[in-house]
Write a structure and sequence with these properties.
Blueprint: H1 2-13, H2 15-18, H3 21-45, H4 49-53, H5 56-66, H6 82-86, H7 91-109, H8 116-137, H9 140-143, H10 158-170, H11 195-204, E1 213-216, E2 220-223, E3 231-235, E4 240-247, E5 250-260, E6 267-271, E7 274-281, H12 283-286, E8 293-299, E9 306-317, E10 321-322, H13 326-340, H14 357-364, H15 372-384, H16 391-394, H17 399-406
Antiparallel strand pairs: 1-4, 1-10, 2-3, 3-7, 4-5, 5-9, 6-7, 8-9
Helix pairs in contact: 13-15
């Protein structure tokens, strides 16, 4: 028995002693061919649409979305399949992508995205991974079918011609403009802008002096008491407040803003006649004369509406203000330039007035990947840097003098 075991061990450990060199070389070559063929068969099998759709997560969530698009059914009969878009065509990149996909297979096996609810919860992260990959490789998978050099720009609509010619000049990645072209866009509620972390950190170390003016770096709730138990409304990022006093983790602030004298007057604006929201109060306190004091009343000549300058004091949490609003605008400016210049040249901030920007921005922001918080900050930045405040439009950089010119 020992001799038999030793012979078997020598066969594997010292094959050249038992087997001729020619046989070893031939056997090794055949084994290599079989291994390579097996590898190719496995690659090909996992590169078919049927394999992708065998996972119920893909079949139940993504297939119905794809079937509603031109990539599934069109007049030319050319259909894009899952691997056409999501698997690189170059061998090296394909192997790397297959290795990355093992994480997705594992997620399927352990049930991370097994239900529709779980899939929607993780969809933003999954989409961002693909967007990052497409951005890094210039959307090579898309351009296997849609190459700039093969496009006839003259057959496009005029608006499309302008955008596509500029994209071709920059050799731009397709996914920069065409997110959600084959699948639904994820909800951006779970997204956040990490740049705000710096603002929050700076606000936490900001020394606050009573009687001085400061600016919100993140939205905050407003309270009627220093214990922060009676919520009465909210205040927006970038809003200006005067700190009256601080007690523990709370600080009392004074708000001096404008509201339209109609309804409950819950929405308070930063400037007369301009729809730049700063504070939204609960209905019960908005008309409470013990809480709200009216300082001035004017009629807006542009709309005929009566506006009131009002003031009130409220409590809010400490550590959320800075002595300058410029850091907030720096983040907003960067986000606006980065997100809104991808598909076309973005309008200059002073090209529109403050009351026009909300409608225009609302129509554009859906084509970007901005999260809700960033979108609100960018809109407020555009409004406060609009033609109502522009030196080039009014001959002075002062907001007050600009508004006096715009609204006599």
């Amino acid at each position: 028995m020992k001799s038999l075991l030793r012979s078997i061990a020598d066969l594997f450990l010292k094959p050249s002693v038992r087997i001729g060199l020619g046989v070893l070389v031939t056997g090794g070559f055949v084994a290599g061919v079989l291994a390579w063929q097996g590898f190719n068969v496995a690659m090909e099998a996992t590169n078919k649409e049927a394999f992708c759709l065998s996972c119920h997560t893909m079949h139940d969530n993504l297939l119905p979305e794809l079937q509603k698009t031109v990539h599934w059914n069109n007049r030319s009969g050319v259909r894009a399949r899952c691997p056409d878009c999501h698997v690189p065509h170059d061998f090296t990149d394909k192997v790397a992508r297959k290795m990355q996909a093992s994480r997705e297979v594992w997620g399927h096996l352990i049930g991370t995205i097994e239900t529709r609810e779980k899939f929607k919860e993780h969809r933003l992260v999954l989409a961002q991974r693909e967007w990052t990959r497409f951005a890094a490789n210039g959307s090579k998978e898309c351009r296997a079918c849609h190459d700039y050099k093969d496009m006839d720009f003259d057959k496009m609509r005029p608006a499309s011609q302008v955008a596509m010619r500029k994209a071709a000049e920059r050799d731009q990645s397709c996914v920069d403009c065409h997110k959600g072209i084959a699948h639904q866009l994820p909800e951006m509620k779970g997204a956040r802008n990490p740049a705000f972390d710096t603002l929050v950190s700076s606000a936490a170390s900001q020394r606050v002096s009573p009687g001085e003016t400061y600016y919100l770096v993140v939205p905050q709730e407003l309270f009627a008491d220093e214990g922060l138990s009676q919520r009465i409304g909210s205040i927006e990022v970038g809003a200006q407040v005067k700190v009256i006093e601080a007690k523990g983790d709370a600080q009392r602030v004074e708000l001096t803003l404008w509201r339209k004298n109609k309804g409950y007057g819950r929405v308070w604006y930063s400037h007369f006649g301009l729809n730049i929201t700063s504070t939204i109060l609960d209905r019960e306190v908005a008309r409470d004369e013990n809480f709200v004091k009216v300082l001035d009343t004017r009629e807006d000549p542009m709309t005929g509406l009566e506006w009131q300058q009002v003031t009130a004091t409220a409590w809010m949490r400490k550590g959320s203000v800075l002595d300058s609003v410029e850091p907030v605008w720096t983040i907003a400016r960067s986000s606006y330039n980065a997100s809104c210049s991808v598909c076309h040249r973005q309008p200059d901030e002073a090209h529109f007035d403050a009351n026009t920007w909300p409608g225009l921005f609302g129509g554009m922001v859906g084509f970007t990947s901005m999260d809700d918080d960033t979108a609100r900050v960018v809109l407020k930045y555009l409004q406060t840097h609009s033609s109502d405040f522009s030196a080039s439009h009014h001959g002075t950089g002062s907001p007050d003098s600009a508004l006096q010119t715009a609204r006599p």
